[in-house]
Structures are given as structure tokens and as C-alpha cells.
Amino acid sequence: MVKPLNITRRRLLGAIAAAPLLWPTRGLAQPGRPATRTIPSSGEAIPLVGLGSWITFNVGNDRAARDASTEVMRNFFQAGGRLIDSSPMYGSAQEVIGYGLKMLGRPSDLFAADKVWIADGAEGRAQIDKSRQYWGIPRFDLMQVHNLLSWQAHLPTLFAMKAAKQLRYVGITTSHGRRHAELAQIMTSQPLDFVQLTYNLFDREAEQRLLPLALERGIAVIVNRPFQRGDLLDRLGRHPLPPWAAEIDCSSWAQFALKFIIAHPAVTCAIPATTSVAHVRENMGAAAGRLPDQAMRMRMAAYVAKL
Amino acid sequence: MSEWWTYDLHDLLLFSSRTYYRLFELYNLELWPLQLLTLALGVALLALWRRGGERAGRAIAVILAAAWLWIAWGFHWQRYASINWAASYFALAFALEALLVLWLGGVRGRFAIAPVTRFRQRVGLGLFLFALLVFPIMGPLLGRSWTQAEVFGMAPDPTALATLGILLFAGVRPVWWLFPIPVAWCLISGATLWAMGSPDFAIVPLAALLAVSVAVGSAVRQARDVR
Predict the structure, then answer these.
(1) Is the pLDDT of residue A151 over 70?
(2) Cβ pair B2:A179 closer than 8 A
């Protein structure tokens, strides 16, 4: 199952250059529908923007807040969204997602992504089953090892569950730019379908090794913390959006930041989290219209670096 | 969590400040008017202190232990744990503090009201009155709703501070075994509020450090006097 890895600078550059051809977004999005990118291991297309649940959906037993989260989910699905991501680490977020899905009649397009987050590998299956019950779904589409925790113990379990069709995809996550070297080693030695990592206008370390490696190895990439938990938008929000942002159909800094991420050829999906219906609509709008090419992406990064 | 030391407090925060204070709001609305009873118990603690003596000390311990036990169950276990998985550990710590207060203060009589230095007494009393009377209005003064008020005997912060106040004026010598959990809680709470961006994040940790400083200073002075 282990794929050999032989990355040379030329192969990497070639892979990056060819990436738009290998994993194209499906052109411009259809009106009202987000653009998609294919999961390399299966060819299945998923929208470039998903929905995270860190902090935003951890509202406990507050019925009003659960209903508000449901509205965010409703608008997410109405705008063509599919992938929702959560973790047992996120407090009540899984239960709140389950509540929303029940209220919405579990949309058939849902792409359910969750994580296993427990030190004892023997407890992994039980935790996954509990998570599944919280969501109220028959199986997860994607199960990821959260922050590399006990990945040596969990990955064999996840691959076995995938073989038994109890999962569709297996992945592993990191965040805040941590443990990239170890993640790279896992990406080269394990037959992963997905990796999840932090990448945004200011945190760009993943461009050096992980994103090219994902392209090379045919691993789908989910991007977390696209707005640095809001700090990025707070920082950019003090400045006006540059007029040339209209060239890539950006109407807000949030869309500017998201388009920068999802236009990277290695990125399959970014997962901003929000409690606001207006913001989820705005985020989904980033996957519509024109996406920046590489020259424009460099212009975007250079521009925000000067702010 | 691996490499946990590389995370800053913002990274560890699991919920928004809106969700956190809403937790108090729902808790208060659900249990109203229990707050009046716990405030009355706080006033009773003062009356017992004024009365003085060993029996009053034991009664103070029983009331205080009941408050810690209730918060362990009613707040941490039943409510806070719904948004913070660490709250189940907080519940255990609060239950342990309740048992320690009951054992050392109620059974062993270490809360017997006895003369202490005027400074220690004033700081202890000040802390207690601050926790009982000022803490509930602090949130509303900072723009939060009255329904989100944190009340002694219901909420962990004012209860921890009130306990530290009592530990300063109850007993001949500070009961050191009873300090770690309230102080640790005050530091955790301050860190949580700081991560949430609450403007009042420093108040509880600073008050706890004041209590510890005064207790240590008092113990050092007593030891010197004995020599």
C-alpha cells in the first residue's frame, strides 16, 4: 500500500504547473453553485468551500443557539455546500451538527468529515461510533486522525473500516502549522485520501512542502483556520479591499482570503467556521466566479503582507 | 494533546464568550430564585463569623462545602461540561474541595473563629464581601446582562474567591490544604476570560494571589513570633 516517493525539484514544479490540468476546478461554478475539485483517490468532486465547526457550533444545550447553527447549515446546503467537519474535541459541536441535520432532514449531499481524538488506539472505534451517533448518520464519509494523536494506532483501524466500507476516506490532520515534518513523513508512507492543515494568506508554510507533496501523492487537502479564527479578517478589515479584487469576483476580505486558498491547485476544500448566515453565504460565494491564477495569488499575498 | 506547550490560550479555547456567558444566563433563569437562597447563605456565613466560636466555624464549613458540591454538580458537571470537556475534571476538583472543607472545617474544626491579625481579617473580609456583593454586579457593569450575573454559591468564581476570603479570617492558622483548588480555579478562570477577550480577566487571579500572599505573609509572621 505504500507508494514510493521520489520528489525532485523538477517533478515538484512540474506537478504544480500541471495541477490545474490534473485536478481542475470544474470551470466556473454553475450559477448559484460552488466550484468543485476532485478527490484524487476517487475522482469524486466536492465543493471548494466547506463548513468548519470549531468553537462556532459548540453551543451546548442552548436551544436558540442550536437553532441558529441549524440556520447556518441550512444556508450552507442551500448554497451548494457539502462538507462539514467536526471533532470529538470540539465540545458539543458534533451533537449540534446532529441536531441541525435532524432538523434539516439530513441532506443527501452531506459529506460528513470527523476526527478520532483519543490517545488509546483501542478506544478509537468506540469514539468514532459515538461521534456517528451524535451526527445521526449511518457512516462518515471521511474520518481523520486529529492532530496526529496516536496516528500509528488509529490509521490501521481507519484503513480497516474503509476496507469494510464503514468509511469512504481516511485522513489525518494538523493545525497551526505544527508537526509538518512528521505529517510529511506520514503522507509519504501511508495511503491517505486526505490531509487537513492550516493554510491562509499569512500562514503559508504548507506551500513549501506539504501542498506540493499532496499533489505529488494524490492526497486531497482540507484547509483549516482560513481566517486564523477571525484574526486575519480583523487585521485586513481595517483596510479597504483593493479595487483589483473585482477582477476575481471578490466582494469582501473573507472571499479574498478564501479565493487565495482554494485557488491553490493542491487544495480540495477550505472549511471556514461561522455562526452567521450572512457569512456562510459570503464564504460559499468565494467558490463562485473567477479564481485567481498563480500570478494573481502572488499579488494577493504581496498586497496583504504590506498592510 | 501533543506539543501542548506550543499552543497559546486562544488555541485551547473551545467556545465563544457569547456561549460562555449564555451558559450562566440559562443556568440562572432555570434555577431562579435559588440565587436568593445562596446569597442568603453568604450573609449567614458573615453572621456566623460575627458570632465566632468553634460551632460557628463548623457551620461555616458545612455551608461552604455545600456550595462547592453544588457547583461541582449543578454547574460544572451538568452545564459547563456541555461546552468544555475539561469541566468534568473541574467537577471532580470542586467535589474534592467540598470534601476537604467538610473534613478539615466541619469535622476537624479547623475553621474555629479565632483572633487573627487585623490586616488578614480585613483582607479576608474584603475578599468575601467583594465575592458576595460586588461580583454579581461586575458583569452588568461591564455591559453584560443581569441574567448572566455570577452569584456566590451558584457560580465558581465568586465561590472560590469567597472561600479564599474565609480561609483568611477562619482558623488560627491558614488551612493550607484548602488553598490549591480555589487558587487553581481562579487562575484557570482568568486564563479562560483572557482567551475570550473579557476585560475583567485579571480580577479573579489577582484576588487569589492577594489571598495567598496575605496567608503566606501571616504564616511567616506567626512563625517568626513563635521563635
Answers:
(1) yes
(2) yes
Average pLDDT, chain B: 92
Instruction: Write down the domain spans for chain A.
Output: 35-305
Do the domain assignments include residue B166? yes
Classify residue A226 by burial, with Cβ atoms within 10 Å: 0-12, 13-18, 19+: buried
Rounded to two decimals, the ipTM of the complex is: 0.89
Name the minimum distance, in Å, from the CA of A35 to any CA of chain B.
31
* Number of compact structural domains in chain B: 1
Residues of B whose CB is below 8 A from A229: 10
CATH for A35-305 is 3.20.20.100
Higher pLDDT pick, A16 / A47: A47
Residues of A with CB under 8 A from a CB of B: 55-56, 58-62, 65, 89-92, 147-149, 176, 178-179, 229, 275
Whether B7 contacts chain A with CB within 8 A: yes
Phi, psi of A53 (to 5 degrees): -135, 5
CA distance A243 to A251: 10
Residue A134 has a pLDDT of 98
| Cell of residue B27, nine digits | 443556568
Q: Is the peptide bond prior to B33 cis by the omega test (within 30 degrees of 0)?
A: yes
Q: What CA–CA distances, in Å, run from A95 to A56, A98, A134, B161, B189?
A: 13, 5, 5, 34, 25
Chain B closest-CA separation from residue A90 CA (Å): 6
Distances in Å between the alpha carbon of A297 and those of A17, A232, A242, A245, A292? 14, 17, 14, 11, 6
Q: How confident is the model at residue B2 (pLDDT cuts 50, 70, 90)?
A: low
pTM for this prediction: 0.89
Q: How many residues does chain B have?
A: 227
B45 part of a folded domain: yes
Note the pLDDT of residue B134: 96
User: What range defines the domain where residue B128 resides?
Assistant: 16-226
pLDDT(B151) > 70: yes
Of A92, A147, A178, Cβ closest to residue B83 = A92
pLDDT of residue B4: 60
DSSP string for residues in A242-276: PGGGGGGT--SHHHHHHHHHHTSTT--EE----S-
- Answer whether residue B11 is part of any domain: no
CB B123 within 8 A of CB B206: no
